[in-house]
C-alpha cells in the first residue's frame, strides 16, 4: 500500500498498534507483550506493558465494533490492575459512555503519514481485580515457581486452578501483581531469546 492509500484508508489496529508500542517503549517498561491470553483464554489483550504490574491496552480502530469492549472488558477488569482503551475519534463519544470510569482512554488520529496518540483520560486502579483469575494469566510452570514460596504442599501434583487458589490465599494484591509482572517479564525475555536464536540459526 502506498502512503496516499494508507492515509485515506480507515485507521486500523496495525497502524495504531505500531504507534502505541513506539510510544510505550519510550516509558521504559520492563516488557511489552502482544496478544496475551487471559482468563483461561476467554480474552486476548492486544498489548500489555509491565512496569511494577501489568497494564492492558485494548485497541479499537475506525472499523472495529466498539461495543465489544462490554464483553472483553469484563475479563480485563478481573485480571489487570489497569486498563486503557486506545481508539479513534469516531468512537470517542461511545467509548466515553461504554468504558468503565476507571479505564484510561487514548485517542488515535492520523497526522500526515504518522498516527498521533493523545490521552482523553488516564487509567485508574481497577476495583474489580480478582487475584485468582489474574493468576491464570500465568502458565502452570510459572505458577509453580510462585507457589513454592507460599506452600509446603507437593507442587507437582497440583493443577493450575489449585496453584492459583493457594497463591491468591497467601499473597496480598500488591505482592501478587508484582509476581505476575515478574513472570511475564521473564516469559517475554525467554521468547525474545528464542526468536533471536531462530534468526541466527537461519
UniProtKB/TrEMBL annotation:
Q: Which InterPro entries match?
A: Sce7726-like
Q: What is this protein called?
A: Sce7726 family protein
Amino acid at each position: 500500500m502506498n502512503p496516499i492509500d494508507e492515509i485515506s484508508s480507515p485507521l486500523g489496529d496495525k497502524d495504531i498498534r505500531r504507534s502505541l508500542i513506539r510510544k510505550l517503549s519510550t516509558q521504559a517498561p520492563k516488557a511489552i507483550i502482544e496478544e496475551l491470553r487471559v482468563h483461561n483464554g476467554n480474552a486476548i489483550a492486544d498489548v500489555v506493558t509491565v512496569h511494577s504490574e501489568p497494564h492492558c491496552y485494548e485497541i479499537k480502530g475506525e472499523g472495529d465494533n466498539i461495543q465489544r469492549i462490554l464483553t472483553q472488558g469484563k475479563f480485563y477488569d478481573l485480571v489487570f490492575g489497569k486498563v486503557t482503551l486506545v481508539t479513534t475519534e469516531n468512537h470517542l463519544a461511545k467509548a466515553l459512555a461504554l468504558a468503565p470510569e476507571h479505564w484510561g482512554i487514548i485517542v488515535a488520529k492520523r497526522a500526515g503519514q504518522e498516527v498521533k496518540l493523545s490521552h482523553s483520560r488516564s487509567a485508574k486502579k481497577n476495583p474489580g481485580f480478582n487475584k485468582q483469575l489474574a493468576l491464570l494469566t500465568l502458565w502452570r510452570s510459572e505458577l509453580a515457581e510462585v507457589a513454592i514460596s507460599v506452600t509446603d504442599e507437593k507442587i507437582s501434583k497440583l493443577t493450575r486452578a489449585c496453584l492459583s487458589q493457594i497463591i491468591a490465599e497467601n499473597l496480598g494484591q500488591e505482592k501478587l501483581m508484582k509476581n505476575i509482572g515478574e513472570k511475564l517479564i521473564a516469559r517475554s525475555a525467554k521468547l525474545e531469546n528464542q526468536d533471536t536464536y531462530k534468526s541466527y540459526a537461519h
